[in-house]
Each structure stands twice: as C-alpha cells, then as structure tokens.
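Record type: ASSEMBLY
Status: queued
Input:
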Amino acid sequence: MTTLPLDNTFDDPTRRAPLVLNHDDFGSVTNTICGVNERPKPPRAWYIAFAISSTFLMVLGILIGYLFWTGVGVWGNQNPAMWGFPIVNFVFWVGIGHAGTLISAILYLFRQKWRTAINRFAEAMTIFAVICAGMFPGIHVGRVWVSYWLFPIPNQMEMWPQFRSPLLWDVFAVGTYFTVSLLFWYVGMIPDLATLRDRATTKLKAISYGIFALGWRGSMRHWHRYERTYLLLAALATPLVLSVHSVVSFDFAVAQVPGWHTTIFPPYFVAGAIFSGFAMVMTLAIPARQWWGLKDFITLRHLETMNKIILVTGSMVGYAYIMEFFTAWYSGAMYESFAFVNRMFGQYAWAYWIMVTCNVIIPQLFWFKKARQSIPIMFGICLLVNVGMWFERFVIIVTSLSQDHLPANWDYFHPTWVDLTMLAGSFGLFMTLFLLFIRYLPVIAIAEVKAIMPAANPHAHDHDKEASA
Amino acid sequence: MPSVDQTAPRPRTGKTYWRSLEDFADTPEFREFMFREFPAGASEMLDSTQRREFLKIMGASLALAGMGISGCRRWPEEKIAPYASRPAGRLPGIPNSYATSMELGGVASGLLVTSYDGRPIKIEGNPEHPMNRGATDAWAQASVLELYDPDRSRHVMHNNQASSWDNFSSWAKSHFAALREADGNGLCILSEATASPSVLDMKRRLLEAMPNAKWYEYEPLNNDNELAGSILAFGSPYRAQYHFDRAKIIVSLDSDFLHAHPAAVKYTRDFASGRRADDAPKTMNRLYVVESGYSLTGANADHRVAVRSGDIGAVAGHLAKMLSSAAANWVGSVDVAKPMLQQMVDDLASHRGECLIVVGPRQPGEVHAIAHLLNEELGNVGRTVSYTARPDAKPQAASIKALAADIDGGEVDTLVILGGNPAYNAPADLDFASKLGSVGATIHVSSYADETSKRCTWHIPRAHYLESWGDARAYDGTIGITQPLIEPLFGGRSPIELLAIINGDDVGAGYDIVRRSFGGVIGDADFERHWRRVLHDGFVADSAFAEQSPTVRSDEAEAWIIALARLASQERRGLELVFTGDRSVYDGRFANNGWLQELPDPLTKLTWDNAVQLSPSAAENIGVKMGDMVNVSLNGGSHVEAAVLVMPGQHAQSATLTLGYGRNGVGRIAEDAGFDFYQLRSSDSMGFVGGATITKSSGSYEFALTQHHHALDTIGGKGTQDRLPTIFREANLDEYKEHPDFADHRVHVAHRLSLWDESNLDNADYKWAMSIDLTTCTGCSACVVACQAENNIPIVGKDQVKRGREMHWIRVDRYFSGSNPETPDSVAMQPVPCMHCENAACEEVCPVAATTHDRDGLNVMVYNRCIGTRYCSNNCPYKVRRFNFFDYQVREPVRETGLMHVKPSYYTRPQSDTHPLQQLQHNPEVTIRSRGVMEKCTYCIQRISAGKIKAKNDWVKAKPEDRSSRVTVPDGSVVPACAQACPAQAIVFGDLADPNSRVAQLHAHERTYEMLEELNPKPRTRYMAKLRNPAPSLAPAAPSSQGSAHG
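Status: finished
Output:
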C-alpha cells in the first residue's frame, strides 16, 4: 500500500495524477459514498437548503395556479416583446442542462476518466434543469389547457402540428433530450442502486432501491450487457448534446427578428450551453463536496479541469459575441446593424454589459492557476457566469424584440413581480429536486469511480514502481 | 321605433310604415317582448329594482356552475322566443340600417346606424348626407358605446337621492304651471348650443307662453370669436363655408379645420381631393399652418410655423398689410421667418380666387375679420369660400356670463339646464358650480349624473340620441332627423320632451314634437310622404342654408388693425396657456367612453390622460422631463397641478392644455383620468391666455403612450432616422413630377427568393387587398375606432396600455422628422393594419397552424386553434398582432395594476355574463376572443363574406344569359370598417383578381410600395407614397436625404 498524495493538482507530465484521494480500497469508497445516503440525518446545511428551496417551489406552484387562473398578462410580456422572462428562463435552463450529458456521454466516449467523479450529479442536474426548462414553454402559452396540441397526437380534428415551426422542433428536441438523458442517468445508476439495496438497513429501503435496481446481481453477464447499453446510450446522447441547443437556437435564428436571424446561433448556443452547464455543475459541486465529505472524489484537480473548460467555452462565447457584430456590420443590413449597436449602447446596454462582463471578462481570471485552484474565487466566478448566461438570453430575446423593424412599435420591457418570483421559484424547483437526489441517490457513480482507482488495475503498482525507478 | 310613452295619449294619423310598427309596439305583449329581447338577463339590468334580484340569482347560479358538476358549461341557459308574427321588414339576423343625426356642439353629422335585432351596433356616416358622404369622425363612431355605458344615469335624482319619474312629473306639473301663470318670471333655460328645429320650436313656444323666461346657451368649445369676427366684418353673423377642394393655397391661422372643426369630415375629404396629384397636370394644394402647438392640420401642413397663439394676430396683420390696401398701416413684429412669410404672401397673391385663409376659433374676432377681408380682396369669395346665414347664433361665453349675473342678481328661481355640464366646464371666473346652489330649483337633464347634476335639485336622465327623437342641422344647414333605434335603456327623456313638460305642451312624446316642428320644415302638404322620405334619407334634401353674399366693411379694417395692435401689445409676453378641445374626449363629454379614452391621440399618442404639453426647450428650462408634475398658475391666482408631456413642434412660449379631463364621480372610465384645465379658463380668455407660470412640482406621473419618444435615446433616434425613408416613403411634388416612380428607389431589395414553396394563390377566386394613400391620410384615427366598433375589440385600461397591450387592429404610426425636436420638419402618419402578407412570417412559425392562408389569400387567424405561443407576433415585422393577455372582455379596465393584476370579480364572472350592457353593442358577426389567443385585422372578413353571399345570390337570381361565368363581387361592394369611416378616402379595399378594381389599379400605381419589402413578405396591404408640396424656395433637401427623425 502506497501513500497517496493529498494534492493531485501538480503539472508533472511524468506522473499520472490520481483521481481519487485518500482511498485505496473499494470498500472505503463504497462506505463513503453510500454514507451520504445512509447517514440517519443529513447535515444541518441540507435542512436549511431544503427549507428554502421547497419554500420557493411552493411559491412557484402557487404562482402557476395564479397564472393559469388569471392569464399570461400577470407577466411583463407585452407587444412587441411577446416573449419575456419565461422563454429567457427556458433557454437558460436548457443551457444548464447541457453539461450533464456532455460530461457523461462525450467525455465517456473520449475516455476522460476524471468524469466519473462528477458525471452522476451532472446528469442529475441535467434532468432537473430540463424539467425546469420544460415547464416554462408549457405554462407560457396563452391557453395551457390545449398546450397538448403541440404534440403530434392523432385527433378528431385531423390536425397535425405545423412542422415548419421551430417551436415544434423544440418540443421534439427537448423531449428527446430529456428522455435519453433520463435513461442514461438511470441505466448508469443501476449497479449503484443495487449496492444501496444490498446495504439497506430497513425493509422499505431494500424494496425501494430493489425495485429500481432491476434485479442487478453483478454477474459478468449483467456487467457485459450494462457496458454495451451504456456505450450505446452514450453514442446516442452525444449528437443530442449538440442538437438540442442548436434546435433551441432555431427558435430565434429561423425568425426574422433583427438580432435573432443569424446563422452563428447553433454553435454559439451550444458553446454557451456547455459554458453555463459547467458553471452550474461547479456551483453545485463546490458546496456538495464540502458538506458531504466528497473532497476525495471531487478533487481540486477535477475542479481545475472544469475551470479550464469554462475558460475555453467562455472565450468561445466571447468570440461569438464579436462575430455577431462583425456579421451584422458586414451584412450591410440596416436593421441588423442597428440591433447590435443598440444592444451595446441602447436602452438595454446595462444588460448587455452585465452579460459581457460576467461571461467573457471575468472567466479570463481562469488563465491564472491561482484562480483556478482557489475555491472562493472559482465559486464566485461560476455564480457570475450563471448570472451572465441568464442575461445573455435576456439580451437576445428582449432587446431584439423590443426594437425591431418599425420604430413605432418600440417599447421597453418591464418584468412584473410574478416574473421575478417565478424565476426564483424555478431555482426552488431545481434545488429541491437536487437536494432530494443527494439525500436518496448515490451522488457519485460508485462502480465507475472504482474503475479508475489504481486498485482496479492489478498492474498499477508495477507501473508506479517502474515510473519512479 | 318610437319612444314608448305609456301615459301620453297619442293621436292617430294615417297608417304608415312607422305608425304601423308603433301600433304594433303598443300592445303589452310586444312591449314585454321588446323588454325581453335582449340576451338573457340583460333587461333585468335595466331596471333598478330587479337588478339586485338579478345579481342574486346570477351569483347563486354561478356558484352552482362553478362548484357543481355543471362547471364545464360555458354559456348560461337562454330562452328563445320565436316571432309569432314578424314585424314588417324585419328578418331576424339580418341587420337593418337607419339614417339619423348626431349633434355635437350644435352641429349635426349625418349618420347611418346598423341595428342588429333591435340593437344599434355600428355607426357609419350617411353616404347620402352632403357633409358626411359616408364618413365620420372618431366621436360619432364611438358614440354607440355611450349608449351602452353602464355608468349612464338611470334614475331621476332629487337632491342627489334616487327619485322617480312620477315624483318629478307631479312636482314639475305644479311648479311649471305656477311659472306659466307668472309669465315665466324667474325661469331661465340654459341649453347646449343647438340648431335643432324642434328645440327652437319648443323654445319659441316656451317664450310665447312665458315671455319673461330667459334662454341662455353655453358650449365650452364654441365659435364666439368667429361670430364676433363675422359681425365685425359684415355687420351681421355669417357662417363661412370653405371649399378646400378648390383652393390651391391654404393658409391656416391657428385653425384645425381637419379635426377640431364641425365640418372637419367634409373638409378632410375636400382637402384630400386637392392633394391627389396623380392625374395630369399633377398639381396639389399647398397648406401653410401657423399655430402654437401641433394640431392635426399642422401635422398635414407643407409649411408649419410654431407661433404663440397670442402672436398669430400679428401674422394676420402682416398678411393684411402686404395683401390689402385697406390695412396698409399695420406695424408690428411677426414671429415668422422672413422667407416663409414672403413666400406665403407671394403664394396668396399669385393665386387669387384659388387661395384661402382660415382662422381658428381661438383667435380674436379681429383676426377673423381680417381673414374675411383678405379672402374677399383675393377674390376667394364664391370660389373657395362662401357665406351662409347663421341663424340664432349666440356668443356662448357672454351668454353664460349673463346668466351668472342674473343668478347673482337673484333673478333666477328656476334654472333648467338642457344638457351640458356648466358646473364643470363653465369659465372658472364665474364660479358657476357654487352659484347653482343659490337658485331655488335647478333641473339638469344629462346622460350622466355629473358635476352639474350633483349640484342640482333635479337630475333627469337624458335619452341618448340613439334612443330618442330629435333633429339637428349640419354645418351647411342641412336639417337632419334623429330617430331612435332602441327604447331608452334607462328610461331617459330628451330635452324636447322635458321642454314639453315645462311648456305644459299637450304634445309630449318626442316623436310627435318632431313631427309637429317638421310641419314647418317640410310643409304640411303631403306631409306623410315627405316625412317618410326624411326618415329614410335621414335628412331633408336641399335644406342647407342659402348662400349669402355679404360684403366686408373694409373701411373698418383700419379699426381692426388698431384693435389687433392693441391686443398684441396688451397680450402679456411670457408663457401662454392655450386651451383646446381634446382629440379624444372633446370637451369632456366623452370622458367615460373607453374607446375614445384608449384611442391614442394622433400626435402625442397619449391615452387615458391629458397633459401640459410643453416644447422640449421649455421643459428643459423649467427643469422637467416627460411625466414630471408641474404647477401651472395664472397671475398668481388659479393654479393646477398637472404632468408634463414634452411635445415636439410646440412653441417654447406656449403650453397646450387640452380640456375635458380631471372628471371624477362620473363613471369608471373617466375616474382619475387626467387634469382639469377648465379651472384656468376664464370667460375673457377662452382660447388662450398669457402671463402664465409653470414651475416644477414634486412627483411624477406615468403616461400610457402607445408610441414612445425615442428622441431622447440617441441610438434609437438615429435608427429611426435611418429607416424612416424606406418605411414611410415620401417626395415633394417636384421630385414626383421628375421621378414618378421615386417610391421604388427608396430601398434596395436584394432578392425575392423564398425558402418555402410560396402559397400558390394564382388561381384563387378572390385576392383581397388594400391600398392606403399616405398623401391623403391625415392621421385622424377615425379608422381605429371604426375597427374597434366593428370587430368587438375590447379596451384594456391604462395599466395595460402602459404595458403595450392595447388591442387596436389598426393603428396610426406617427413619426416626426427633422434634426431639431423643437421644430420638426414634418410629421408622418401611417395607418398600419395587418398586411395580409402572401409570404407571411407569422404563418411559418406557428406550431399549431393557427394562422394560415385561406383560399382568398387572406391571412386568417383561427382563434379556436390558437394556443397562444405568441411566436407569430414576434416574427411579424409590422407587429400588427394583438394578444389577449387577460380575458379583456371580463377584466375591468383599471388605471393601475396592484399586486394582483385583476379584480376579484374577474374570476367570478364567466365571459358571457360580464358586461351585459356593453355586450349589446357587440357585432354578432365577429367572434369574441377569449384570453390567451392572438388576434389581428381580418380585413373585416365578415363583410367580405356578406359581400360574397350577396354576390352569389345575385348571380343565382340573374338570368343565365346575363351572368358571368363565375361569381364576381362587384368592386366597392365590400368595404372594411376602416375604409368606410375614412373621411379622406385614403383606404381602398378590393379584389386584385379583378384587374379593373380600384385596388388593382392602385397597386399598379407608380407611387405604391410595400413596406419592409426587403423582407419579401409580399404584403397585400400596400402604401401609396406621401407627396408634399412645399414651396420650392423653402423646400429642404430631397426627403431621401432628410435629416434626423425621431418617433
């Protein structure tokens, strides 16, 4: 048994940095991770967080009732900005929902082993973010009671949806993404659910986990089929990562509103989504590893790697911002040029500059190793990136709509208290689901983490010896 | 149908169409049926005693409907009563039209009212009437809503307590009998201005029966100065009738003849005909306007100069000096740039006999007299202006002043106020409201229990003009009949019926009174035949005033000049306040009319309020910005706190105050709306007054503007400036002559390619299309109200307008152009309905196919299919789509939104039972939209259907050898509400499939362009570019390179 280093953030290319600290056997890994779910009482922080988030969730529920009863006029949406906070929130949450599948599917295919520490709850975050996202278009329509007409359900009217509409593509894209993400998350969790079942101390837990463990016994045949399925699902999910936000961007790119009608949108939206998704993973991971003692699995090296991705995607987003201007200028189209100049210096300049500051300027701090490794700094930056990405959607949607072609229609959008409270409420929904997840499901993929430990490789010691010799 | 007076005996005369209906109406069964005719429960609402009962029952049944299993039902049960025997000429479901007249400020307009199963629902101009020719203004259009206003007075009130007709009759009988005994000593009548033959007949009878009674008249927006000017000029009162169609040069001195003039509808039509420069030799009139703040006429001027109202007399003086030998001695400075003034003089001098000088009612009599003099000397009399008699004209301010003096002198025991609202709008110096208390008995007949009613002993609900008999005279003197289309909903009486009670007349019913007075109008010989003719036509043919040819007493011109010079020097310098009628609520009488309150002012785009209109520099000097509260005070005396609206084109030394707001306790709509400037208006300065001070006060006020002043935002201002030449294409006449196709060259269209297969509309039976001529459109906004009335468009309230949620299907976009907001070069007015694009952006993005093309090429909105994603509106580059954010038919139009966006009643009332009264106005041919659906202009698809059905029926009925191979709808037989109402006839609608249709020809016209054609929407609504005719010596650079603009 060798002593594992406490710091795995070194840059020495001759040494492979360990991805799990302080654990050298499988048993202690299982104990630590299952301990999160098995401890009789969660930490006080959990109670406080749950109380706050479930309160917001309740407020959200009440407001949805108020909305349904009264009409969408309770929001600030107006003519010309017919889409306001709800669609801003929708795009924001869909964007958040990107990191999970990217981490679990694309990084899996690229054999990025460090993903195992964070993939489980990144995926959970994806599911919950997509739930938040999916809610908004649903409650956003004027007549919610017929919103099912968006789905291609055979009916007596012999009416199909209108397949040219990007909103309909959205329904399919988000629906598919949610389904595949859920399956991927669940399938990946089956061995761990079986672990929890086997360790259950009460009958209720044994039955509940048992049902979802689908009779997993860990036989070689099970493992074989599991690995195949997981690989196939990863392959299936990978294009979805790119497609869903591309399709969401079509809502705007296909319309002819100046400021929306640009071909750069699909890649720009995907980069932005990954950017915001990683920032949200960080926002959740940093407190979670602190409170549940998961620092050995989600190590500083993991966080640093993610910070690097944030830096890269943030710069891509910044590039997109610049290219938008270039395209608008180069097009020579009067309306397009105006839309972008107006964004920068017009009545919503404040929102634009919040966006640029949070998304492009502040993440540049991650060029510095100190910033990448400082927990308070990275937490602060990630929070700001979340804010910035929300404002990005606000800028795209609201500023473009507020001042489109005919100046006579121009107006200034004011959110109502319902808009603001519902945005807070959607965080309540997200956090409530996430806290429940932490409490009852394995936050880290136990089986996968074990596979990347030196102990999983019988020859590891030999190599280490060779390397150090 | 006649007013059913159950007590008065009615003499039988020969049977006629109307009499037989009346006979029928006299049966109790029919009366009961009439009463029951309205949709379930509505008739109960009309009766005060049953109203509570009705509410109780409704409340209970609603609770059951909401709680119980039956909650899924949307519509209440209705009893359907079939006609046992149908009244002659009446087909259920087929609307009838009746010709009638509406009197406003003593002048009638001829109307044609559509009645649907006994409910008047839509007002249009009488196409036969010489003044209206089918068109109307917004006030007439909106007056039908007043009929169904639930806030209208419903009861006789005695000392502010609900009383009854019986109480009043018994009191009046003895009271007026005693007065008749006393020859009317102490009796005063205060009437609104009226030229109604019946009222005048009753007045004559009253004064015969009570020779000591006195008759006064008061109208807050009056023509006292015109009258004074006429007496100065001619020695007796004459009314000038202008013929703008014959004038090549028009100089308006503070006159808003295109809007705030009793004959504005006719003048707009005439003016427009002088602006159409398409036929050789391509000439058009030139309009100079000198005014202090923007009027609609100023907005349509080729040259507009902002001059203090108090200094406009000097402009008249200068013109007189230059153009007339009789007034050569004028000395005084003129606040108009030299070249402009010289050009004006030259133009007038070189267009003798085809020029015209018109003066507005605010200017003192001397200015009017000078205009009469100049028009005569320029040879315009008999060509561009003619004179008619002006019978019974009375100076209104002097009249009410005399009445106030009489009251002070204790000479008035009984005061009968026929309409009007003097306690609110009498000159402030008279303090009329408190004087009312010192009169023994005061009787006020009015539509609302208003400020005056509350101070009167008796308040009598007045029957609306759509529910009572009467008559009136149009501006040219044409006598029109006012005939009721419905029983008085609240049992009101008309002024002539009240006069009959006062006179102790044995003829008591309005119908009989009008018939009696018409004996003197159409002669007793063959009366019934003529009477029926009048009922059918709505007016008495050839009853206009005879033309007179007075001569100006030019030898007195010297005296006017001296008076004018004295006035000019007396006129205190400094800030002046200019009082003007409001373009929405007139003098305040329409303050409770939601359509008018929500109608954006054509120039300020303000709804639901009025304001102190200040120029940008004046506002800056005072240190205020849009919406700040200021204190407006006059010589340290009366003062009013009001909010500032910064208005381009306003003279810096002049503040425009529109009257008619600041009324409280009148109704839900008028409540808290705007500021009362009558408090600053005194009897010697009804038009304008100098020496005012405006200081910044604390606080600010939020306006509900439908269009924002982005001049303050430099990016937005520049953006507007860049795109305006392509959106609103215009040229000066000279450029048009050189380049008739200038409109095609204002924008470069890269391509006309489409991503999709475009809807193939080539073989469609019809291709409906619209053409809007920007040259003739004045921006009056009558189309907006007409559309609202036709299409059941709800009002949304101030809080929703602030949120940009107004529902108008057609709007009028207004842009100012020029580099200086202080003095804009010009104003652009552009009505924007749905464009019905062939390549519609909205249709591509709707996920449920709720908006699609129909076979006739209309872009239709399927309300039942719409789920309200609002994507269509986002993608519509014209933003003509309107969304039902709330159930606006149910929601009370509130001024401010609290924490809750609706009142509790919003949840408890189903749509079908909300405003039973206002519902009566609804056009049954148009669906009421529920919340959550998008709506927009349909090109009045219901009228298209009606036109097609008629064409098909005609085709089927025609002889086979006469009929064409396919059914064609004759051109001009389908007219949407906006086009129908337009006084300038700027909107033309028709079928492009018929190459001879007017719209097809206009679409092929060289001035026609597509707005935003670079997006390739292929709109069916197209514009004809605006032509202006500035003097070449004064014309700015070509409009294509015009200066900055702001909207």
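Annotation: The first helix of chain A runs from residue 26 to 38.
Annotation: The radius of gyration of chain A is 24 Å.
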